[in-house]
Write a structure and sequence with these properties.
heterotrimer; A mainly alpha (about 220); B mainly alpha (about 230); C mainly alpha (about 35); A: about 220 residues; mainly alpha; 8 helices; about 85% helix; about 0% strand; B: about 230 residues; 6 helices; about 80% helix; globular
Chain lengths: ~220, ~230, ~35
């Protein structure tokens, strides 16, 4: 079986399992609304405009969403016995990473897709002139989040303290795409074009390449029995 | 020679190296405090530099070595390499505590605030957090094979991705420079200051090696006990 | 005018000394404990 097809099957299976219960998805959404609301209210509106805190609020929301999505890895735990089954099939090992990566991307992307309109609604920000560029930035940063997160959640799921270990290990690695995402969002909402602020974009791009490659390669090490 | 014997030998040697290095640190203290001129614009607080910078050098070296040993471990699968990598990480954390405490104490009189998110200190903060996470992960993994592999994964990720963290902070700082109260210029150091600095860097390097040997010996002793317990049962 | 900030220097040097000797002691104690087993 080709890697791509095996990966597809694994991704679809993961998404289907999540879709049945929708717990993590629902929690992710509730979190998004709460974080956006709390950050909106945690300022003096006469001193700090909603536009000023908007980029930070958006990306904190996305980070929480990503971590909730990755905590789906708990499903992996029940599956870990099932993982032996997957490992017995002719599916190539690399496919397991790409399948998990794809499923996590879909999941985190779904939460982001719903958080973004809420964000625009609550913060009243002018995203329309820069929408495509903003979507590109979000996509690039999310790839990094999910690549590193997929690898780490695979490791952390074996420990008793998975929910604590994942943020502890993940967040330091997320600093480049997170800070880059916030800076780029702030510039875009200010009306600038991506071509003017290419420094951050190149940083996130390079980080994407490095993190996805590294995650794909090191995932094999994690799976090794 | 049994593992325990080898470990004991390394512990003894490490104790000597560390003792010599600590004497060296004492010597640096004397030289820096009593025999190195005071920088006119910044005052005596500038002398913190002679401890802070060498500690930063040692910390960086420690993490770099952990990263390299991680790659080596995945390639050679020798348990002792994993023990050495973990030893270097712990020593790195110790030096990081020195950096993160002396940094703000230096920053307050020079930059006006205890913490200014400057590139080097922020970078140290994140590597510190990463390696604390590394050590915590090791703490919760009981199987030595899994512990070794997973630690190596974190070590390699840190080696490759942490430079990006540095770039991030640097890029942020170039866009949003930190306020400066006193303006520490960066001309070449007068020779007395340079000698003090370089001596201190040398001494801290030896101290790193001494700590590494001791921590490695400790790891080997623990491994020896694990093996003895396994053989008995 | 050279500022009067010697206090900071002393504090930093003391803190660094405490941390480094503290870590040394921790290593030595842990090794001793391990060797006694």
């Amino acid at each position: 079986m080709s890697t791509l097809r095996a990966a597809w099957h694994i991704a679809v299976k993961d998404i289907a399992i999540e879709w049945r219960t929708k717990t993590a998805f629902a929690s992710g959404l509730v979190f998004a609304v709460l974080v956006l609301a709390v950050l909106f209210f945690s300022r003096d509106p006469t001193e700090v405009s909603s536009l000023a805190i908007a980029p930070g609020a958006l990306w904190v929301t996305f980070t929480f969403a990503a971590m909730l999505g990755l905590n789906r890895a708990f499903l992996l735990e029940r599956e870990m016995r099932a993982m032996d089954g997957i490992l017995l099939t002719p599916a190539p090992r690399a496919a397991i990473f790409w399948g998990k990566f794809g499923a996590n991307l879909a999941f985190v992307g779904a939460i982001e897709a719903i958080s973004l309109p809420l964000f625009v609604l609550f913060y009243n920000v002018p995203i329309w002139p820069r929408l495509t560029e903003l979507l590109l930035v979000i996509a690039m940063a999310t790839v990094a989040f999910v690549a590193v997160g997929t690898l780490l959640s695979a490791m952390v799921v074996r420990t008793r303290y998975a929910e604590l270990m994942l943020p502890l290990l993940l967040l330091p690695f997320l600093v480049p795409p997170l800070v880059g995402g916030v800076q780029l969002t702030a510039s875009l909402l200010d009306g600038r074009h991506l071509s003017d602020i290419s420094g951050w974009l190149k940083l996130i791009g390079a980080f994407d390449v490095a993190s996805v490659t590294l995650a794909a390669v090191l995932f094999q090490v994690v799976l090794d029995e | 020679m049994t593992l325990r014997d080898r470990a004991t030998r390394i512990a003894r040697a490490g104790t000597v190296v560390t003792a010599v290095a600590l004497l060296g640190v004492a010597g640096v203290y004397v030289r820096a405090l009593a025999f190195t001129p005071v920088e006119v614009a910044q005052g005596e607080a500038q002398k913190i530099f002679y401890i802070h910078v060498p500690a930063a050098w040692a910390g960086l070296m420690a993490f770099f070595i952990t990263g390299l040993l991680s790659i080596l471990y995945l390639w050679l699968k020798d348990q002792r390499i994993d023990i050495a990598a973990a030893a270097s990480a712990e020593v790195g954390v110790a030096f990081s505590v020195v950096i993160l405490t002396t940094g703000p104490i230096w920053g307050k009189p020079i930059w006006g605030a205890w913490w200014t998110w400057d590139a080097r200190l922020t970078f140290t903060l994140f590597t510190f957090l990463l390696f604390v996470g590394y050590l915590v992960l090791r703490g919760v993994l009981t199987d030595p094979g899994i512990r070794g592999r997973f630690s190596a994964v974190i070590g390699i990720m840190a080696l490759v991705l942490v430079p990006f963290v540095h770039l991030t902070v640097y890029l942020f700082r170039t866009q949003h420079p930190a306020p400066i109260v006193l303006k520490p210029s960066r001309p070449s150091l007068p020779s007395e200051m340079l000698i003090t600095l370089l001596t201190s860097v040398g001494v801290f390097t030896v101290l790193y090696v001494g700590f590494l040997m001791l921590r490695y010996a400790l790891g080997l002793l623990r491994e020896a006990r694990e093996q003895e317990l396994a053989n008995d049962s | 005018m050279t500022p009067e900030n010697g206090g900071f220097m002393v504090a930093a040097y003391v803190v660094a000394a405490v941390i480094l000797t503290g870590y040394t002691v921790s290593l030595v104690i842990r090794i001793r404990r391990e060797r006694r087993r």
